[in-house]
Amino acid sequence: MEFAYYPVTLVIIIVTVLLSIRAFKDTEIKYKWINYPYKMNRESEWYRTISHIFIHGDYIHLFFNMFVLFSFGRMMEFELLRFSGRPFGHIHFFLLYFLGGLAAGIWPYLRNKDNPNYMSLGASGAVSAVLFASILWTPSNGIYLMFIPVEIPAWLFGIAYLAFEYYMSKRGNSGIAHDAHFGGAIFGIIYVLIINFNKGEAFISHIFS
Question: What residue ranges do the domains of the chain occupy?
Fold first, then answer.
């Protein structure tokens, strides 16, 4: 797959890596950009709904998110390009990613807008939107997980992932923004259904075929 088919994915990865590395070295920037519902609610710092997507906790966090984005983002951007053509395919992917990141922050905000101790960061919610859009778009694909040398059907992984993230978000106190992962994933599904409802029908048919 040529780079020309997924330029938005590459630009997002490059910008996110550069800004994350900068935030690693400057804690003031990291604190200023982090998702902080309490300050958003009390001081209207709404820019944090976007800025936190570009920074990460550490290099492992950054690598994992960008690896998943590269693996599924380039495929999803290519599929959207085939579906809508230029430039609309690239625009769809841009909206999927960033609106997914915004949507992922809704549940954490509502739960923590009065909690001065809650903060989160990272692109996991936006990446989850891309991941689940790709699962709904191509449910016949397989997914490999680290340390599990067996291909898992995309649709099965998606159902299990949603159940796990919802359970963990309700349980809480894990140190991981499971509610953001769940919210981003749901948005990815909704976005695909809005632009191509037939993909939902095809997904159901694939499961029960």
Answer: 3-208
Q: Is the pTM above the cut of 0.85?
A: yes
HSE-CB for 183 with a 13 A CA cutoff: 24
Question: Which stretch of DSSP H or E encloses residue 149?
Answer: strand 148-153
| Fold held by 3-208 | Rhomboid-like fold (1.20.1540)
| pLDDT tens, N- to C-terminus, the chain (209 residues) | 666 789 999 999 999 999 999 999 999 999 999 999 999 999 999 999 999 999 999 999 999 999 999 999 999 999 999 999 999 999 999 999 999 999 999 999 999 999 999 999 999 999 999 999 999 999 988 888 766 678 888 999 999 999 999 999 888 777 788 899 999 999 999 999 999 999 999 999 988 87
